[in-house]
Amino acid sequence: MRSSHTSLFTASCLFHWALCHGVILNAQGNDGSPASVGFQGINPCQQDTTIIRDAEIKDNIVNECGRTQLNGNIDVGENTEQALAANAVTQVQAGGEVQLTIHQVNADGAGPYVCDLDENSNSAMISPKNITMLNNVPGDNGLSLTKTQQFNVTIKMPDDLQCTGASTGNVCTVRCRNNAAAGPFGGCFAVQQVDSTPKVNTPANIETKQPLDKINEQMKQNQVNFEIASKANNTP
Fold this sequence. Notes:
Elements: H1 2-15, E1 22-28, E2 50-51, H2 54-58, E3 67-68, E4 72-73, H3 76-85, E5 90-92, E6 97-104, E7 114-118, E8 129-133, E9 149-156, E10 171-177, E11 185-193, H4 212-233
Parallel strand pairs: 5-11
Antiparallel strand pairs: 1-6, 2-11, 3-4, 6-9, 7-8, 7-10, 8-9, 10-11
């Protein structure tokens, strides 16, 4: 089974060579629970890798999970709810381990990768928690000579994990990426905590407000982005 999936993955990504770098194929938490896949993933192959740049997040061009060249900004809330509906969110517990399968397609999909998580699932990583990497994808600054190879990476959830997001009130978003200059490349996936009491999320108690200075800052950035987009649209 593994060899046939690998062959299909390799053939498809060779066809889309310019779009593939490093992809999160699978995330497996507690034994017996379903596996998660990277947001915007196409099983068994993602034809367009995720780019997660801090500058684009800061400028509100994308959210915490970045974008793909084919589909643009990744909607964390939408992807999370779709995964929950499909029973495709792996289960975790505080201090537990998650096994990742990362497929490195070309040189700048290498490691090392770093992972963090948003306990509120969709709050723009305002207070992200770092995740312990128990092993990693080989590489230096996101580069190596390896191509079309899968790596198994184990990550450890924080001991004080408290997932409170999504409609179920117990989902976190995990984000993993390398530091390749052309990227960073990586992806996000949802995990569902099963050793805690779920939060009851309603429109009234979900914090979405921003302070006035942040709103004004974003309005200024929107004006800059509009000018850039307008000039690009008017360029022959």
